[in-house]
């Protein structure tokens, strides 16, 4: 089976490798639909890191999510423009008064993609049993399941089911709080009121796949995705490209009554160098590019300014504040970073404003508050972050037992390869600041992405670069990274969500109270108190709140930018500008 799949993948890549995306090339005629939309073309985008997995419960990085979001769907999804929760597989839902019970009513007639996992190769209808199967899986102890934290201590019976699954003795009825009412109705009961639960269900862990696919492919679901989305997997060539093709049986209809999607397909490549990626975009071989090489930002802006004088735009530049934090992690459980004053010293020793202004050329905002980035309604400015104070940093370093850096030795900073030059530039500047300001020596070690993830999730790294892009639009998603109950008992056990292994009883107490508050304003105020504790304890080194900058070709329509860089290509189309 494996050899056949690789051969078919190569054939598939060849079939779509020349597809244009100019709305006319690519082996198919374009046609215009109602409302002026245009059918046809293949959308081409690039990721600078290889994707890890397309299995919904093992998606822990953005590259996999951006591919999987075109293939899979959940009972709800996010609006690509404002990130509000929208109906998807469920056409509507009811929530009781105290937000402890959510009832979802599924659309009828939605089918899974055609796939050999089904007896006749034809995708069958999605029913409530499929929703329960996949949501129960979130609560199952399994090396490929990184998502139990989403339902843990929230959904009734989730913890009991998780513990029982360790021995394979799961209750026959599955998770107690996930109930099938009938073929098209499912109910979820929570332990306590949680107003943000719909946001959690929009997470990739809530994407729905058939039991037949899991039974047939098992771990190979990381490459062989079967969902209900607007596109289905045609070919996967690891490290080179992923090709998705239009799902001819997709259920979606636009506001004019047009069948979705408009595109014939999507091709994702994995060019590692940002300069090469930009060059391919300029040639028209890519339809978008996310983030720019730092040294070329001024050239791109200048090109757009010149175009304004001449009239014809070479491309469209989209810039939005990101719901994203770029930070360095400390391993709080092991030396030397089990020393709070050392963590504080390093935080006071770096000039975040200088990093953003000179190193990132203004592409971002200095993280001078907490770990939650600027967020609508969230009082992030009330959180007092780390100012640049070398004198205080030196004092704290001495109090930590390392006066003038003596006795500390060289600290290894792990950063990942790829991601453009910003990772290396930022690391080098921080390395220099720590040496000049507090005489701390830092050695930078660049690791491949998979090794980097494994190292810090299993506690092998003590100081590392990481970041967090919101899984769903809620401050809770960032603060959850520091919730003590996510820390495993053994250092060798993987700690995906709380990788810094921060544990603080006061933080946990406030965080747990905030989770149960239904009033948004009060909830956010409590979250800000918890955020302040993270800063006071120097659980990590926040560096900057990101900014999303992307270029898209002028012909790309209906593809708004958003703070999460959440991509839904089901309604994107190509249309040439009139001369």
CATH architecture label of the largest domain: Roll
- Helical stretch tally: 16
Q: Please give the CATH class of the largest domain.
A: Alpha Beta
Sheet/helix structural class: alpha+beta
Q: What's the mean pLDDT score?
A: 90
Ends distance: 51 Å
The major sheet is characterized as: 5 strands, antiparallel
CA-based gyration radius: 24 Å
Indicate the CATH topology of the largest domain: Dipeptide-binding Protein, domain 3
How many domains make up the 3D coordinates? 3
Gross geometry: globular
By DSSP, the count of extended strands is 21
Helix content: 25-40%
CATH homologous superfamily (4th level) name of the largest domain: Dipeptide-binding Protein, Domain 3
Instruction: State which percent range the strand residues make up.
Output: 15-25%
Which spans of ≥5 residues are poorly predicted at pLDDT below 50? Answer: 1-27
